[in-house]
Structure formats: structure tokens, C-alpha cells
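Q: I'm building a small set of examples for a reading group on sequence design. Run inverse folding on the following structure and report the sequence directly after it, with nothing in between.
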């Protein structure tokens, strides 16, 4: 997969530290601890490309990875962007608000953003913050792929019920696909990969 070739490009504390908009970008967002880092690592087939920073007060960064163009050495076919997890309880209000602005700014203003991957814990379903983010994203028309991760934690029947509930809940919000996913048990990886690759090179 194209995603397996992802390499680290830059960590940015602010939006203006990112390279100017270039090839198509796919960003990953989600509540802290939902399983975003694990999802990125399994999709890129790398052990520690993404890592979650759970240290309170530590600057949370936007990490950007590049997907090398096999036909044009030195050029990127696309980028993966790991956004800081939201809703982390130990972060104080000011820092949280600051990050909401950074996150919101990226999602709203980045012209090269081709699609958004939203990572949710299948056992928690759509949380208030997830709902707010999805509603807020909808008018932009950007496609969203919801990875309902840790699907291995639910037996098959419950898993399918949870997926159906999320699809129903978010059905009105434009171009949105929800799939069961597990980084540890490798569920949904091919489907997610195909979806993301199609955003990068349709
Ligand atoms: P992040 O904060 O969203 O980046 O979350 P992490 O990827 O660090 O995962 C949070 C916790 O959930 C860790 O303990 C992971 O080992 C665990 N986890 C992540 N994905 C899965 C999964 O698919 N299945 C199971 N069982 N555990 C997972």
C-alpha cells in the first residue's frame, strides 16, 4: 500500500509552521485515547510512526507524514496529518480552547485537505465532542471516514449494532462512511486503506 511508505515530515505547534498547502492531505482526528495513534501505525504498517502524548501540559503537536511519489523521487504524492487528540481531561481550559482554534483552523482553512478520518472507540460511540466536530465539518463538504476502533472488544453482533447506530446518528451529515476497525486484531484495515488511498490518488 501507498500508505506503508509514509515518512515523518514535520511537527508543528502552530498552523503557520506547516508547509504551504500542496498535494492532497488526509487528517486523523479523535478523542484522546480513542486509538488514533494505533490506527495510523497499523495503516502505515509502522510500529511507532504516531505516538500519543498523554503528558499533561505538554505542547501537543500536529505531525505530518509524507507519502513519497514512486514516479517522482523527492516529491510527495500526499500527506497524512495527525491532529492532536481532543477532549483530554487533564488539559486545562485555556490550552483546550487554544487547541480548538488550531484544530478548527486547520479543518476549515486547509485547501489541500482531501478527507478526514475520525477515530472513535466503538464502545463509546459518538461522544458530544465527536458530534460537534462532525456537525461543524459537514458544511465544508469534506468526506469523513469514521473508524470505529477497538471493534475486537465487542462480539460480532454488538459490533454490527454499534456500527449501525453510529451510521444512523451521523447519517444526515453529508459524505460520511463508518466502518468497524481494530488495530490489534486487524479489522477493517483494507477497507480503510482503500478509502484513504482513493482520497489521495483517485
Ligand atoms: P490515541 O490517544 O487516540 O492515539 O490512542 P492510542 O492509539 O494510544 O490507544 C489508546 C489505548 O487503546 C492503548 O492502550 C492502545 O493499546 C489501545 N488500543 C488502540 N487501538 C486498539 C484496538 O484496536 N484494540 C484494542 N483492544 N485496543 C486498542
Amino acid at each position: 500500500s501507498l500508505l506503508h511508505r509514509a515518512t515523518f515530515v514535520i511537527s508543528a505547534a502552530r498552523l503557520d509552521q506547516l508547509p504551504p498547502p500542496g498535494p492532497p492531505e488526509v487528517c486523523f482526528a479523535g478523542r484522546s485515547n480513542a486509538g488514533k495513534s494505533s490506527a495510523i501505525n497499523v495503516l502505515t504498517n509502522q510500529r511507532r510512526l504516531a505516538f500519543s502524548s498523554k503528558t499533561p501540559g505538554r505542547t501537543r503537536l500536529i505531525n505530518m507524514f509524507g507519502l513519497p511519489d514512486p514516479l517522482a523521487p523527492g516529491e510527495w504524492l500526499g500527506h497524512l496529518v495527525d491532529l492532536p487528540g481532543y477532549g483530554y481531561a487533564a488539559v486545562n481550559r485555556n490550552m483546550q480552547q487554544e487547541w480548538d482554534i488550531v484544530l478548527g483552523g486547520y479543518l476549515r482553512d486547509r485547501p489541500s485537505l482531501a478527507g478526514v478520518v475520525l477515530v472513535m472507540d466503538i464502545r463509546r460511540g459518538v461522544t458530544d465532542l465527536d458530534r460537534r466536530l462532525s456537525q461543524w465539518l459537514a458544511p465544508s463538504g469534506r468526506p469523513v471516514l469514521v473508524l470505529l476502533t477497538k471493534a475486537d472488544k465487542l462480539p460480532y453482533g454488538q459490533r454490527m449494532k454499534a456500527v449501525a447506530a453510529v451510521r444512523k446518528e451521523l447519517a444526515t451529515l453529508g459524505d460520511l462512511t463508518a466502518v468497524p476497525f481494530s488495530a490489534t486484531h486487524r479489522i477493517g484495515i483494507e477497507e480503510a486503506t482503500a478509502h484513504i488511498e482513493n482520497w489521495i490518488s483517485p
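The chain has a mean pLDDT of 90.
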